Fold this protein.
Amino acid sequence: MATQTNTQTSLLPQGVGRLTTTWKLAMAGSFLLFAVGVFAFVRELSTGMIETGMRNVGTMGGASWGLYITMVVYFIGVSFAGITIAALIRLFNLRHLRPIARFAELLTVVALILGALAIIVDLGQPLRGVVNLFRYARPQSPFFGTFSLVIAGYLVASLIYLYLGGRRDAAIMAHYPSRLQRFHRWWAAGYRDTPEERDRHRQTSFWLAVTIIPLLVIAHSTLGFVFGLQVGRPGWYGTLQAPAFVALAGVSGIGAIIIVGAVVRRIVHDKSRIDLDVFAALGKFLLAFLLVYLYFMSVELLTLLYATPEVEKQLSDALLLGEYAWIYWGSVALLVIPGLGLLWQAFKRRWNVGWLVAFGIAVNLAAIGKRYLIVVPSQTHGTLLPYEVGSYSPSWVEYGVVLGLLGLGALMIGTFVKVFPPIPLREDEEVMVDA
Amino acid sequence: MAKYAMVVDLNRCQGCRACTEACKIENNTGQSMFWMHVFRFEDGEFPDTRMSFLPRPCQHCDNAPCVKVCPTGARFKREDGLVLTDPDRCIGCRYCELACPYGVNYFNWQTPEASQYSDVIDWDDPDIQSATGGLSPPYRNPDLDEEWGPEGRRTAGGNHDKGVMEKCTFCVQRVEQGNLPACVDTCPVTALRFGDISDADSPVSQFIRENETWHLLEEAGTEPSVFYVGGKPPSHSYKEVERPKARV
């Protein structure tokens, strides 16, 4: 029986249902990380947030938001690019990019879930938070946009988009006898790929894409507003926060798509579907967002250096020359060097997947660094009353929980690619099956 | 409807921090929480230095940034001017703390294990036993668990639940019973005054009329209910000296 199932599942395209040793090892590692995260979070729940490195701003000389909020902003930023690209592919009918649409959407969904979980672990009362954030939701609070709106609007819309886009493939997959057949049949939900059905799907997805684009600009802007609307915190208050958040979201998100794309390409053993043209297109997208963000960053830096109010000076000194300088200039380097590399590749019209992946990793590290620098220094060095300068360094609990979230993300992506084709099947796939 | 306000007379304050003590005892706040904090500043170059003091309670702003950003409405503004926290609704996101330019919010990072004073005071002393009614820490001021005001919400933050935010309440439990906040009641030199500013004849209204007043961080646009008389707003050239041990 077992061998029969194995031979049957091996028929599924793109390695779906086939568990290789590499995959098992990767998943075991991810699960280990996830377990560390759960252990750390249970510790935090039972003793209280005293286990983290966070302390009160002011007399206690700490930072009340730390690594968790940094990761919230980072994860929700990563989610931006996936659904944007998927929606753009639909809206402008970019056929040659179609193969990346599904795992781009998947990345959005996973990143949003991780972002929401990162908010939950940051709450002093996590269970009460899940209820009260909806029960007593106040849209006047910028926090509404980062949780309630992200979950209720953005995540649900992305899931529906992913679901609809996958129905045709699910119907095809349901033809294959396998242990996953029930799941594929459930996903297909009676879809038979008739011309009317196909047309209805195209229309629904189109209008969903039209709706999602403004929704995600709003969601990401409110994330910027969480910081940008606070007069009481030097370094936060500013009009540029919201657009700069969207720009850096694009940078980190496309970087992440490039990384996942390279991994998926290896998993499915089919380099023809995600070819160099696709990577070239992603590289150009990344370059465009990177240039916009570098422009925002330069504007911000010039404003800071040219005319600095007293308190902002204390903050900018800490950022540019003081204890945060290594993160600041490190992040700048990790943005500028990939920018130059991408320019060179674009200029030469020679794209290299290895370099693109390296740039993707670099800009993601830079994004985490920049998010950290938005969240933390304004608390330790940005008090308007002359409190003593504070300090913050994450504790092992915070690192553990963040690693756990990353492990969970890898588990989710890893599971998905083994139960569903991560690249949309070819238009002629069904004919092939019948033959 | 009354509208409460506090006046801090910096011409009188001598930085004794009796108000801080009174606050901690009345509200039984945990270690390193200072709902009422008194800055002791030093300014200038040696030997021409000058000490100055600045009590910093919650400013109970009329345009309170903490109220605006609270995602669940746990932080709210009462008609009588008090800005309070509902510990049963607070989810502990700490956004209020970051929105506040004054740094008056304190998060319960853990359940307080002991009173701030348990190792200083001999709780078995008969005199102390009679004063506390035989209670020893960690004890609760029963008034702090009451639901105060027309909202009927538990706002005094007295039992310091783990994972929620708290801050100065203008001693809502005392004000509702017609008493002064503990800090005001304790101040030995009447540097702190408290009263109803909607009543033009109240002593505090008269005092504000007769003196030049200013607000802390007026430029933040928060419209505080705490008025300062005398002294001058602190600048970043001030150095804070004699800080309390504040990190847990």
